[in-house]
Write a structure and sequence with these properties.
With 148 residues, the chain is α/β, with parallel strands linked by helices. The chain is 43% helix and 16% strand. Strand 4, helix 4 and strand 5 form a beta-alpha-beta unit.
Length: 148
């Protein structure tokens, strides 16, 4: 059974999301498109929370969010326990978000990157494992109540 990847965007990320839904299918994943379903202006928090809740409760292992800068989506998603939403803007940051921080939600800034870059970063996110080792205690520190 294919891994289900919830994906959502606001109006700024709508067109890029459509491309990434197809890329996920091409790669053998089952995208769960949680909206938005048009380029009409909308508010991002509900979409971020919808994806993040699925990661938080374990119904999804990872998710993808898009908005203009990626910042708003990451702010909302990171309020969920166990969610580590990473705004990425190049391949190196994407790889390190997985290797060092075990990011489980990819956040793409649709107004700052192109479709081909976004597809490449999606593949990097999906293909890069968490390195573990010394990074485990750091991730545990991120997830700790009240910090270290």
């Amino acid at each position: 059974m294919a891994e289900v990847i919830p994906i959502a965007a606001d109006h700024a990320g709508y067109e890029m999301k459509q491309r990434l839904v197809e890329e996920l299918r091409r790669l053998g994943y089952e995208p769960l498109d949680l909206g938005t379903h048009s380029s009409e202006s909308t508010d991002y928090p509900a979409y971020a929370h919808d994806v993040a809740e699925r990661v938080e409760d374990g119904t999804a292992k990872r998710g993808v969010l898009l908005c203009g800068t990626g910042l708003g989506m990451s702010y909302a998603a990171n309020r969920h326990k166990g969610v580590r939403a990473a705004v990425v803007w190049n391949d190196e940051v994407t790889r390190l978000s997985r290797e060092h921080n075990d990011a489980n939600v990819l956040v793409l800034p649709s107004r700052c990157i192109g479709d081909d870059e976004a597809a490449r970063m999606l593949r990097t996110f999906l293909d890069t494992p968490f390195a573990g080792g010394r990074h485990i205690r750091r991730v545990e520190g991120i997830d700790a109540e009240g910090g270290a």
